[in-house]
Amino acid sequence: MNINYQLPENIKQQLEETLEVRQDEEFQDLIRDGGYVPPHMDLLTDAITALSMGKNILLKGPTGAGKTKFAETLSQLFQQPMFSVNCSVDLDAESLLGFKTLAYEGEKQVIEFIPGPVTNAMKAGCFLYIDEVNMAKPETLPLINGVLDYRRTITNPFTNEMVTAKEGFGVIAAINEGYIGTVPLNEALKNRFIVIEVPYIEGEQLKQLIVSNTKLTDETLINLFVKLSGDLITAVFQGKLSEDAASIRALLDACDLSVLIPPKRAILRSIVDKLDEEREREFVKNLAETLF
């Protein structure tokens, strides 16, 4: 693949080599070993391109669509370790940057700083994954605005150390929109990311995912689960079900359980019983009855 961006030659070469991995044996092995299977190859190409150019990427899509698996696959393709932050309303500066604690040097008590995931990723020059970024309080994430823009620096408030990210550092974030407890990202934060919409995996890609990520081998059952998933996704788009009902993660759990228990009961435990509304529960049960 030829890269047309005005980049230094060494960066161009690195980007071309990274993109070429899509077609080589190593990439195919990664997919077979449970890596992310993109519904459209452009998703992977664009994510690799953005990260290779030093951009941050924001994976946006429904729950269970594979955003975390996508991030893990990118980490493996770049041969980069990845530090993770799981956002919540309790996320604070210590959760991001680290904290001070008492330690001993011999018999002498000292104050030691334990670095957090942001500091570790910057100093190691590897990836930082921020999951459910819109679950954090609006006042928390601006602490790392300098990490997310061209400066790639932060002043650690606990040590007063100026930390500058090593080459290779990159940020991947994920977002589920419209869920209880989430807040809209402010424009300053959103503008620091390239947004990549991650849709549900369907059809042959989903079949391949079931084969590589579950213990289910019965092709007839696998095809029925693919059909079930397609019907659930259609119902979500029609407003009949919440996104939770079409979670690919939940579907894979049902596939695994169906190896040892009847498929309808596997669907009940993995999908139906997670839904809050009785109307939705009955809808999914009726679909399962029809197919299985």
> How much is the radius of gyration in Å?
22 Å
Major beta sheet, strand line-up: 2-5-8-1-9
Total number of β-strand segments? 9
Highest CATH level, the class of the largest domain: Alpha Beta
Oligomer: single chain
The helix count comes to 13
- For CATH, the homologous superfamily of the largest domain is named as P-loop containing nucleotide triphosphate hydrolases
CATH architectural category of the largest domain = 3-Layer(aba) Sandwich
Amino- and carboxy-terminal Cα gap: 45 Å
**Number of discrete domains:** 2
Q: What features would you describe in this structure?
A:
The chain has 292 residues and is of the alpha/beta class. The chain has 2 domains: 9-197, Rossmann fold, CATH 3.40.50.300; 203-291. It is 43% helix and 16% strand. The strands form 3 sheets. A 5-stranded parallel sheet has the order 2-5-8-1-9, sandwiched between helices. The radius of gyration is 22 Å and the shape is elongated.
In short:
The chain has about 290 residues and is of the alpha/beta class. Helix content is about 45%, strand content about 15%.
Note the main attributes of this structure:
alpha/beta; Rossmann fold; two-stranded antiparallel ribbon; five-stranded parallel β-sheet; single chain; disordered N terminus; 13 helices; 43% helix; 292 residues
What's the layout of helices and strands?
Layout: H1 9-20, H2 25-32, H3 41-52, E1 57-60, H4 67-77, E2 82-86, H5 93-97, E3 98-105, E4 108-115, H6 117-124, E5 127-131, H7 145-148, E6 153-155, E7 162-164, E8 170-175, H8 187-190, E9 194-197, H9 203-213, H10 219-237, H11 248-257, H12 263-270, H13 278-291
Parallel strand pairs: 1-8, 1-9, 2-5, 5-8
Antiparallel strand pairs: 3-4, 6-7
